[in-house]
Amino acid sequence: MPKPVEHYVLDLGFWDLCRYAISTRRVWWFTATARTRARFARTMIGSFWLGLSNLLSVFVLALVYGTVFRVPNFKDYVLYLGFGLVLWNSLATAIATAPNLFEQQSQLLKNTNLHPIFYTLEEWSFQLQTFLQSLLLVAIVLSLLNISIWFNVLTAAFLPLVNFAIALYWLPVFVCVTGARYRDLYQLVPIALQLVFLISPILYYSKSLGSYAWVQNFNVLYLVIALVRDALLYGAVELQANLIVLFVNVLGTLSAIYILNKRRWELPFMV
Questions:
Q1: 231 with 237: CB under 8 angstroms?
Q2: How does 239-256 read in b/e, with b if 16+ C-beta sit within 10 Å?
Q3: Which string of DSSP letters, residue by residue, matches the chain?
């Protein structure tokens, strides 16, 4: 017996869902681009505000914490803090906004037959575009302090950036699927992110942790960020660490898609 048309898109197997995500890539990428353009409509410098706001934060924080920590080389500290802050802000923002993703799309979830994966991919595209625009302007300005950044981008940063982009998808998906069922995440996620930020060597060097430096080895968010920052600043590619992170990313992505597909019928009743 043929399935009703209105249920066809939702009733997909795992690999069919992956093909569906790829086949609709132009649609969710376009809608994300439209959101990015609408975000800065009627502004003078448009999306440059993304990079500018990050640059202002970097230089103010560098001045304050560079003085507090008495950093020996202020230029190196600005570079270290600059890339660390851009990467952290992008990943933390994607995770912080994830719990209410499906609630924002509740009307579409209830009245259309689009699979929920479409909305996660649209949000990922939006966050990825925001990240790339921020990173580009920050890299242009910081390269005035270290021109080798562009060489490192071409030779060392590809795999770490791919890992970062993948983590930017599956970590928020886990949060948003869980957040649709358990509203406690609305309160828990901001607190958890703030605590993780404080124990992450973003504002300070890793050596400042002293005997507690081992903590960063269990900080998944920081590990993803550190690999990108080290590649951009020093041209360092820790192949083993990057491959381990890539394996975790692939496993996390497949698990996130599986859980999302399994709970697709419940989502309209939870938002």
A1: yes
A2: eeebeebeebbeebbeeb
A3: -PPPHHHHTTS--HHHHHHHHHHTHHHHHHHHHHHHHHHTTT-SSTTHHHHHHHHHHHHHHHHHHHHHTT-S-HHHHHHHHHHHHHHHHHHHHHHHTGGGHHHHTHHHHHH----THHHHHHHHHHHHHHHHHHHHHHHHHHTTT-THHHHHHHHTSHHHHHHHHHHHHHHHHHHHHHHHH-TTHHHHHHHHHHHHHHTSTTSS-GGGGGGGGGGGGG-HHHHHHHHHHHHHHH----HHHHHHHHHHHHHHHHHHHHHHHHTTTTHHHH-
Within its chain, how far is the Cα of 177 from the centroid? 16
227: Cα within 13 Å, side-chain hemisphere = 26
Q: Which two tokens stand for residue 188?
A: 């828990």
- Which pair of structure tokens corresponds to residue 197? 């930020």
Listed by start position, the domains of the chain span 5-270
pLDDT digit string, tens, across residues 210-256 = 777 777 777 889 999 999 999 999 998 888 999 999 999 999 999 98
Measured CA to CA, the distance from residue 254 to residue 231 in angstroms comes to 26
Q: What global pTM score does this model have? A: 0.88
| Identity of residue 182 | Y
pLDDT tens digits, one per residue of 6-63: 444 555 677 788 888 888 899 999 999 888 888 777 777 666 777 788 888 888 988 8
Q: Say how far residue 120 (Cα) sits from the centre of its chain.
A: 12
- Token pair recorded at residue 170: 């599956």
